[in-house]
Amino acid sequence: MNNLARNMAVLRRASGLSQEKAAEAVGVTRQALAKWEAGETTPDVLHCDKLAELYGVSLDDLLHYEQRPGNPPPPPRGKHVFGVVQMGERGQIVIPKRARELFHLNRGDTLVVLGDTNPGTAGIALVPAQFLTALMEVATQVQQEADRKEEGQ
């Protein structure tokens, strides 16, 4: 089974849709969708686009995301799964090459480590320091505008 066929089947099931409902949503018969998912035939690009939209993934991930045992399905549009990294004894990690390229990260760049400890959303995020600086500037501007309005009342 090719990546496209596997991804269509996994994403449809993850979305809780029957073949009939998914086929209806993209304007084809259930039989056509079943053949696509089995890898017997391949949908045209317009139907692939409709499927990607239906499942909330990028067209590239619908076509190329490689399903492996234990891997999650293709991520939602704009989200990425770069792989697994192992933490070194001093807490160091190597950011996968694809992630470094996508986010234009280079040796010596400063990253901010953010964390969420709330159950269900717990995790760690790395963002370029410029993001935090820009966010602080916006917060300062908003506060200054609020102060000016308060003084004018």
> Which regions are unreliable across 5 or more consecutive residues at pLDDT < 50?
none
The largest beta-sheet arranges its strands as 1-2
Radius of gyration: 22 Å
Helix content: 40-55%
Order of helices and strands: HHHHHHEEH
Q: Compute the average pLDDT.
A: 88
Query: End-to-end span in angstroms?
Result: 68 Å
Strand content: 5-15%
**Structural class, from secondary structure content?**
mainly alpha
Give a quick account of the main beta sheet: strands, pairing sense, barrel closure.
2 strands, antiparallel
Shape: extended
Separate helix tally: 7
What's the β-strand tally? 2
Give a written overview of the molecule.
It is a single chain. This protein has about 150 residues and is mostly helical. It has helices at about 5-15, 20-25, 30-40, 45-55, 60-65, 95-100, 130-150; strands at about 110-115, 125-130. A two-stranded antiparallel ribbon has the order 1-2. Helix 2 crosses helix 3 (about 30-40). It starts with a helix and ends with a helix.
Summarize this structure as a short list of keywords or feature phrases.
153 residues, mainly alpha, 7 helices, 8% strand
Structure at a glance:
The protein is mainly alpha-helical and 153 residues long. It is built from seven helices and two strands, in the order ααααααββα. It has a two-stranded antiparallel ribbon.
Helix-strand layout with pairing:
Elements: H1 3-14, H2 19-26, H3 30-38, H4 45-55, H5 59-64, H6 97-102, E1 111-116, E2 123-128, H7 129-152
Antiparallel strand pairs: 1-2
